[in-house]
Amino acid sequence: MMAGISSFLTRRLPPFPLAGTAAAAAAAMSSSSTAANVSYRPISPDTTRVAWVGTGVMGQSMAGHLLSAGYALTVFNRTASKTQGLVSSGASLADSPRAAASAADVIFLMVGFPSDVRSTALDPSTGALSGLAPGGILVDMTTSDPTLAAEIAAAAAASGCSAVDAPVSGGDRGARNATLSIFAGGDAAVVARLAPLFKLMGNALYMGGPGAGQRAKLGNQIAIASTMVGLVEGMVYAHKAGLDVAKWLEAISTGAAGSKSLELYGKRILERDMAAGFYVRHFVKDLGICLSECQAMGLSLPGLALAQQLYVSLIAHGEGGLGTQALILAIERLNNTSLEKDG
C-alpha cells in the first residue's frame, strides 16, 4: 500500500532538488506545491489562461473558438499581421513563444514543420517550455514526428510541466466549424483534464502515451493520401468518358465511394478552387514522416509512396502553396488533359 502511494507521488509531483540550503529547499517545496495546485485546478475561463502559437489557416479559427468561449488568450505568430483578427477580438499579443507561455496555464502550438515545433517548444531562450510555469501544459497540435513528441513530453516533465501531442484532421472547414478530429497522446489524466478546451475545437480521442497522437494522425494521412488519388483519378476518368463530372460526384457520394475527401474537395476541384485548407507542402511533410516511420518499421506501403511522389511533383511545379485538392493538376498533366479546358 505504502509503496503504491510513494509511486503515485513520485509520478505526479516534480522531483525536489537536493538543496544545499534551507532556502533552496523551501523554494523547491513552493514550486512543487504550485505545480500540484495548478495541475488539479479545473479548466475553465475563470481559472485558466490560454496561449496560442501559430495563427495560420487552421490556428486562427481554433484559437478563435477559445477566445469566443471567454478564455483569456495570448497569441504569437512569426508574421504578426496574422494575429490581427484575434487581437482585434480581445487577444493579447506576445513577442515570443516563451512570452506567450509565461502568460498562460495551457499553451497550444499549431506550426508548420517538426523543426518549427522543436524551436517553438524547446529553444532555451525563446521556446515555450522555458516560459511555462510548473504545472503548465503544452499541447502540440501540429502534425509532427512521434519521437519529437516523446522528447518534448520528457522535457516538459523535467520542468514540472506536462506535454500532449494532439494533431488534428478536418481541414480549414473543420477548424472553422469546430468539428475537428483530435488525436491525443500523453498522460491520460492530462488529456482528460483538457477536455473543456478540446471540445471547443472538435472531438478528442485518447490514443495512448507520448507520440501516440502523432502516430494516429500519420495513419490518418496515409488513408487520406490514397483516397485523394482515387478521387482525382475517378474524376479524370469520368471527364474523359464524357460524363457530367458534377453529376457523377453526386451519384457516387451516397454509395461506397463516398468519402470526406469527396465532400470537402469534389466541388472545389470542379470550381478550380485550389486555395489551401491544408497546404500541399505540409502534406508532403506529413507523408515524408510517414515514409520514415514505415522504413523504421520495415513496412512497405506502395500506395503511400505513390501519393507522396505525386504530391512532390506539385512542389516541383511551384504549387506547394496550394491546397491538397491540387492533386488533380498532377493527374491532368500525366494525361495531357484538363477538366477545365476540355469541359
From TrEMBL:
GO terms for molecular function: NAD binding; NADP binding; oxidoreductase activity. The keyword Transferase does not apply. Keywords: NAD, Oxidoreductase. Pfam families: NAD_binding_11 (PF14833), NAD_binding_2 (PF03446). InterPro entries: 6-PGluconate_DH-like_C_sf, 6PGD_dom2, 6PGDH_NADP-bd, HIBADH-like_NADP-bd, HIBADH-related, NAD(P)-bd_dom_sf. Transmembrane segments: none annotated. This is 3-hydroxyisobutyrate dehydrogenase. The lineage of its organism: Eukaryota, Viridiplantae, Streptophyta, Embryophyta, Tracheophyta.
